[in-house]
Design goal:
238 residues; alpha/beta; 7 strands; 17% strand; 7-stranded parallel sheet
Length: 238
């Protein structure tokens, strides 16, 4: 039986992936800040879910919590980082930016670093992280969110390069969603909004195929190509 940990399993994509993995006969460590939601989720698959309450931004405890959860599972094959935050911040409130960085950069790095080292020691494993199409360019209405997602994209690329040099069975997958129908989808003018079920099905398919970079849904790759191609002088005026 495969063993997985999902960071941020209390709602949205993380919760959807937890249920999907359990249905595919995975034993799953589920984490998040809200204990009540973890308990409710465990009740749906009591023999397959192992809950652990912690905040990804509390880096003083992350390693201890991950090691404890891994022992409960009896090992680890797959770790998914689905925990993230981001708010519209046109007034550039520093507290919003700081909170975003603590979660999406500091906490993310602590978990990814631990997971990669764990997989390197056992010479196999799969690290998956939910970044964003937003990480491809900056944003005037959510500067820290887009910037932190760009950090994640580049950090994952660095780990993927490292895994290749090690010539081991370590895989790193960067999941880049567009709009998914979750609490994270903020702002007006949203289009191509995917349901959580559709998003999680495509993500699980990408995990099985050990893909390196995946856009969710698939047609968001078109938007990604367009975004990267817009000249800086034009983008600055948008």
């Amino acid at each position: 039986m495969n063993k997985a940990i999902i960071i941020g399993a209390t709602s949205g994509i993380g919760k959807g992936l937890a249920l999907k993995l359990a249905n595919e006969n995975y034993t799953v460590g589920i984490t998040g800040r809200r204990t009540k939601l973890l308990v409710e989720l465990k009740s749906q698959k009591p023999n397959l879910f192992y809950p652990k309450t912690f905040d990804i931004s509390d880096t003083d405890k992350i390693v201890e919590d991950l090691e404890d959860l891994t022992k409960q599972l009896g090992g680890l094959d797959l770790l998914i980082i689905s925990s993230g935050t981001g708010d519209l911040n046109e007034k550039l409130n520093y507290e919003i930016e700081k909170r975003t960085i603590e979660t999406n950069v500091t906490g993310f790095t602590c978990v990814a670093n631990w997971a990669f080292n764990y997989f390197e020691n056992q010479k196999a494993g799969h690290l998956v992280a939910i970044s964003s199409v937003g990480g491809l360019r900056g944003s005037r209405i959510a500067p820290a969110y887009n910037a932190t997602k760009a950090y994640q994209i580049n950090y994952l690329e660095g780990l993927r390069q490292k895994a290749t040099k090690l010539k081991s069975h370590i895989f790193v997958t960067d999941i880049r969603p567009g709009f998914v129908d979750t609490a994270m989808a903020k702002g007006e003018g949203q289009f191509w909004v995917a349901s959580v079920d559709k998003a999680t099905n495509q993500i699980f398919d990408a995990i099985k195929k050990k893909k390196k970079i995946v856009y969710i849904t698939k047609r968001w790759k078109i938007i990604g190509t367009i975004l990267k191609g817009i000249p800086r002088q034009l983008y600055d005026r948008m």
